[in-house]
Amino acid sequence: ALDGANLGSAVTAAPYAVNWDTTGVSNGSHTLTAIATDGVGLKTTSAPVTITVNNTSTTTSGLTFAATSGIITAPFTVTSSGTIVQPSYTSLTAGGQAVYTFTISAAGDYVVSALVNAPNTSANSFFVNIDAQPTDPAMVWDVPVTSGLVSETVDWRGSGTADSTSPSGFDDQYTPKVFSLTAGTHQLIVRGREGNCQLGTLTIAPVGGSSTPTPPADTTPPTVAIIAPANGTTVSGTAVVLSATASDDGTVASVQFQWDGASVGSPLTVAPYSLTVDTMTAANGTHTITAIATDGAGLKATSAPITVTVSNAAPPPPSTLTFAATSGLITAPFSITSGGAIAQPSYTSVTAGGQAIYTFTIDTAGDYVVSALVNAPNTSANSFFVNIDAQPTDPTMIWDVPLTSGLQGETVAWRGNGTTSSSSSSGFNDQYTPKVFTLSVGTHQLIVRGREGNCQLSTLTIAPTNL
Fold it and tell me: Is the whole model's pTM more than 0.70, yes or no?
């Protein structure tokens, strides 16, 4: 007997001996006795013997394998990143099947873990079982993954058994499922359930061992190659497509294009990895393009570089616009003179002055100045209120033209900004520096309002400063 309990079966013939496997008991002190029984049933117990069991602890190892290594059945498919996935929600019988045959060296309790990509909380479960087809609902096991988590290692959880005491309606949903396995060969069977939920690496690990084995570290970087444009291509225009392919033994997290070593666009997280670039913003000549792929473990790889030659025609020079003062929308007290100019009879405030509005279109963004053919009858009648794309204000939009008495038909740029300055002899800062307007491409309005009486405007010109 061992510690008072029978050890093996009774031995009926000499020599009286049994084999004892000491690994079945804990290390430490134990007591052995022998009990002899004669033909009439009388018994005698031997003097006890104390022994110490001291076995070296053994650890049952876990098993890890890729989801793609099993026998995969449609509608399961293998993704470019090395996982298995099916496209839509299915019943148990219609779901894809993946069968993995494995061998356990020591009997015991085991749990199953997997590297999972659950695109959302409605696509995070599979049907799973060991050594038998799973059933619905008893073998529906959800993984507690929320929206968008990629490469998350989780235990198979819950049993799918309805339980009104569980908030989720499933018994032990957040307790790992334990399988009691004998030593030998077994099969793990996974069936598809919710569409687009992906499986990567799977692990079968002992319960109560030194630790649950973790999937092997990812030390292999992804691969990436540029497929468009072709190396050596000449490109032009505003919509040149850059495309690349990328793959990994796990998942591809992103692909980032670079133009001459600088990132262009945002990292692309979903295949196909393509974006459009505007080559008009690049100088004509040779440029280098690369693509950098990053996998789920953060490992990076850079594609072989390609070169392209940008060859865009030079943009047309900015246009100079000229129009008659009489061509605008003229409001009294402005009036048209017999000489084809506009004038008002007397000095007015900005609100009382006549108004002339000229709508024009700029085809090239840049800096522009406004000039006009002016008749200033004297030095006290040589200014207007002027602005572009807004009503002029007083005094910041009073722009004098530097004309002296009686000058006829003199073309001058609008000057000054009307800001009072004690350092200026005239009281207006920068009075004799042309006013520069920075204009975008598109339609604008030049607004002129009358100020000093009998000062006439004829032809107006809007010209870029770089001509």
Answer: no
